[in-house]
Amino acid sequence: MATNIRKTLTDAGYIAVGLTVMGVQQAQVRGRELRERANQAGSCMSQRTHDLRTKVESRTKTAREQAEVQVRSTVTRTTDRTKELRGELTKRVEPVVGQAKSQLGQVQSQFGEIPERVVQAMEPVTARFRQLAGNAA
Fold first, then answer.
1. φ and ψ at 10, to 5 degrees?
2. What sign does the dihedral 10-14-19-20 (CA atoms) show?
3. pTM confidence score
4. Is the model's pLDDT at 85 over the cut of 80?
5. pLDDT band at residue 127, thresholds of 50, 70 and 90?
6. Separation of alpha carbons 82 and 75, rounded Å
7. What CA–CA distance (Å, rounded) separates 99 from 103?
8. Cα–Cα distance for residue pair 2/63, rounded to 1 Å
9. CA-CA distance, 43 to 34, in Å (whole number)?
């Protein structure tokens, strides 16, 4: 019987070592499978990230181009409208300015005549004053 126990224990040891080796091998296989799945997921994420970056860059470029076109259009319209308004304003203001200059010239000439008119108006008064002053003396 002693030999049977020894043989049984030896066989049990071999079985335990065999099961351990099989467990380690299975863990290695599952580790490889897990690494492969992780690599696939990483590749998928990398591709999706690349696709998304390309899409964002494309849309950004399109938006920038549209904004530039819009800005150029707005600047052109604003410049054209400003020129039109300047022309209209000039047409309306020039006659007023010309008229104001003309009226200013008339007013200036009338002011220039005031001292002469005052002297003419004062001559009869002065003469009468002298006459009265002469009679009083």
1. -65, -45
2. positive
3. 0.45
4. yes
5. confident
6. 10
7. 6
8. 89
9. 14
